[in-house]
Amino acid sequence: MAAPLSVEVEFGGGAELLFDGVKKHQVTLPGQEEPWDIRNLLVWIKKNLLKERPELFIQGDSVRPGILVLINDADWELLGELDYQLQDQDSILFISTLHGG
Amino acid sequence: MCQVGEDYAEPASEEPPPRQPGREQKCVKCKEGLPVVVIRAGDAFCRDCFKAFYIHKFRAVLGKNRLIFPGEKVLLAWSGGPSSSSMVWQVLEGLSRESAKRLRFVPGIVCIDEGAACGLSPEARAKALAEMKLILQTVGFPWHVVALEEVFDLPPSVLRCFAQEPVGTEGAYKAAVDSFLQQQHVLGAEGAGDSPSLAQGEEQLSWPCTQDPQNPQSPDRPPTAAQTEALSRLFDSVKTLTAKEELLQALRTHLILHVARTHGYSKVMTGDSCTRLAIKLMTSLALGRGAFLAWDTGFSDERHGDVVVVRPMREHTLKEVAFYNHLFAVPSVFTPALDTKAPEKASIHRLMEAFMLRLQDQFPSTVSTVYRTSEKLVKAPRDGCAAGPPGPRCLLCMCALDIDTAGAALLSQGGPPSPRHRAAVLRLPCEHEGLALPGPPAALHLGRGPAPQPELLPQGLHRAADPGVPG
Q: Any chain B CB within 8 A of the CB of A60?
């Protein structure tokens, strides 16, 4: 049984367009049976935060290729990607690299 | 070791799969820092080593190619996006270092407002422009903001390839650097407060005053509604997103070059990253531009003759750029582009991007492999301006046309194009205003998708009755 968590979810690089233009979201994840990991967080985001065009953000059970995920300013590849267990007060940042520079 | 039946969903297990670098690893470079980012396949860097690696790559690309001479005026093409913002920031930092390692050219920034082509409302455009100006003022280089509508006012001279200045030899570059250093030394010895590195990190006094960055000859006036309308109609008349993107690219390039020529810049730096160039290489192949890959994706692009386009960010992947910008607070402005929120199959560019990125996800050396291939491309000897009499050039991309010489005589007499020719020829009578060019008649590549309607092209380019291109 996982306790409720408070995390900050942030979007950048154009990804915020899919979330009504809002970059920072302070969210409280409700307590649930399974522990909160990135995989479950994505499902939660798709259901509760994503306003349009889910296929531009999520692909399968992961993010679309081209979207970087930073957990507390570190590459998620170093932390287990989808299997990383969320802690209270974590900061998850999604940066889209799908636009030119 | 990884076991076949291991259940990764166990809450107690904190160990990441062994094949991926874990947080308990150390930075591969300094062996002691906590890693924050994974570059390439499995190299974990800590924050400081990553910064050093990133900056070193930028300087190395510039230093390796030795094309930018000291004191040269270089125009930085800034779109507000992450790659070009990173490039501008690297130039800013590079110019303010201690004298031995300092970058030695004189920068300016150009920013093209493409809002009309992307269908942005005037308020959205104004808002984006305000954000951009804020950053431009912080950076402090002379800047030029140009609306894409001004492409309608371009003189026909933009379509001419100017005589190429002879590229300096290795000795010439070294001599130039040495004499520049000597000058600086002499100036420093004479005092007069001309020290290269001022305490506040201000720019050198040898730059033009940046109090009024806008060119006094073309005051900052917003484009007229009629021009915006004309541009919108032009882009609306192009039916496919692929063709729109190519048209936008061509118009943007012409405009940037015009700004460079007008203000005396001999080089233009664009922020194309490794990822973008790999995608561009594949897209160009799909679009039939295989002959020009070396110019489209190489470090330097001299097709325009007097102004050379260089790509110093070509060894940085988009992931590195995004991480650097986030970790070190590089400001950038996001503006919606033509293909924002477009579905995957909307254009060849989008499709290729999705293909490459998806492949990259599973095979992390995809982008770098494509990039290495692009490095091996060699420019064909018949380069246009450099060797022999200049051949006809495409109006939109300024590359030399690949028509065979046997039929060239026929074309210059205004004869009909035969099915052998791979380019469409549009006959322009010399009394036609605007795009009248001396010499052989102007010719246009027929790319995929229908061309824009004749009355809507800039300065009224008329189509010949029979394009005569097979397929």
A: no
